[in-house]
Amino acid sequence: MPVFDLRKDLKDIKESIGKPFDGVTSGIKALDDFILGFGKGEMSTIAGRPGMGKSSMARDILLNIGQPTVNEGACLLCTLEMSCNEVTELLAANLGKVDYQSIKRGCAGDKVLTKFHTALEQLSQYSIIINDDSFVVPDSIREILKVIEKEEPIACLIVDYLQLMSLRKQVTNRQEEVSEISRELKAIAREFNIPVIAFSQLNRNVESRVDPRPRMTDLRESGAMENDSTKIILIHRPSYFDRQLDPNAEDTGEAELIVCKNRSGACGNVECAFISSWMSFRNKPEEYENDF
């Protein structure tokens, strides 16, 4: 049992004071400035309704942590919804800043295809490992991490998304199962001393309200998730709901990241941009206005 003796073990704390934040960042500067990043040994939850961009943000974080210049170690993505090939193609579209739908439809021009293939080549230098087992369970994630750990440091674990996971054992109900999965992911964060970022679904209550801005109480089958997470971030894109009411409404690209739990800091809203053509969250400078 881990025990911390204040008479003997304060040295590590003293040495860590004043040092840079020990963790990973999202690559979205406005968010990173607000929350610092995702700390080692901590589980954070990022949640949203379908279509808000949960998987897009997972890929953004993956590319930021896994880039060759960062050299933090391997970043493992457990994707329960997409195949490795699909995730890789979407990563390349993001990295190359190209319209993925034009590529899938077969109508992309030579310039776009060249940028896409160049990005695919660049990805071979990224420290990214993808597991697309749709039946992955916490224990199998542990085994994967142990294998990786023998070869290189582990920078981060990303799970997309938590409600698609299950347990091998029998449980009373789904809420109990999701709560136990959440506790297991937190335990993995502490066991391997890595940031664990779990993406999560929000319930339908969001869409039935006059103001569809999400709240922490909208976490679907949340159970222990609110307690287990050091940080909870909710994704909100006003244009998405505007276009649900009027398909001809303009996609402004406005996005809001609602930090509703931040154990070591403030809570609040972070404004950013969502570029739908290459499905990526970015800061909101003028240089991206033509990409929406």
Automatic annotation (TrEMBL):
Domain SF4 helicase: 17-288
A GO cellular-component term linked to this record: cytosol
InterPro entries listed in its UniProt record: DNA_helicase_DnaB-like_C, P-loop_NTPase
One biological process term in Gene Ontology: DNA replication
PROSITE patterns attached to this UniProt entry: SF4_HELICASE
MF (Gene Ontology): ATP binding; DNA helicase activity
Protein name, as recorded: SF4 helicase domain-containing protein
Upper classification of the organism: unclassified sequences, metagenomes, ecological metagenomes
